[in-house]
């Protein structure tokens, strides 16, 4: 006697990725190919998502270094932290879209 197949586990990353891919394909068939202007806008948003936290980290680091009279003690780590945060947020945004 064979048992009926069990339903797929909803928490399985492979099943979630397959469903997300299916939804993207379905949406692309309905909406069509995005225009060049839309693609350029997405690239612009992506750039600002990386640049903004990087510059904020840079400015806060420079302010702290001037206030505490240190050379690059705060600027370098906060610049890298801002860059990492910007890249991470851009990655999350690309994965969601």
What attributes characterize this protein structure?
97 residues, 76% helix, single chain, elongated, mainly alpha, 3 helices
How would you describe this protein?
The chain is mainly α. It has a domain at 35-96. The protein has 3 helices and no strands. It is elongated. The N and C termini lie far apart (45 Å).
Total DSSP E strands: 0
Percentage of residues in strands: under 5%
Gyration radius over CA: 22 Å
Based on secondary structure, the structural category is: mainly alpha
Shape: elongated
Give the secondary structure arrangement, pairings included.
Blueprint: H1 13-31, H2 36-68, H3 75-96
Q: Could you write a compact summary of the structure shown?
A:
This protein is mostly helical. Helices cover 76% and strands 0% of the residues.
């Amino acid at each position: 006697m064979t048992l009926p197949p069990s339903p797929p586990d909803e928490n399985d990353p492979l099943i979630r990725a397959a469903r997300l891919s299916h939804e993207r394909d379905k949406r692309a068939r309905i909406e069509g190919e995005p225009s060049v202007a839309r693609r350029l806008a997405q690239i612009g948003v992506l750039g600002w998502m990386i640049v903004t936290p990087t510059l904020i980290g840079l400015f806060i680091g420079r302010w702290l270094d001037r206030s505490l009279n240190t050379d690059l003690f705060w600027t370098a780590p906060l610049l890298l932290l801002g860059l990492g945060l910007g890249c991470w947020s851009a990655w999350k945004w690309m994965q969601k879209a």
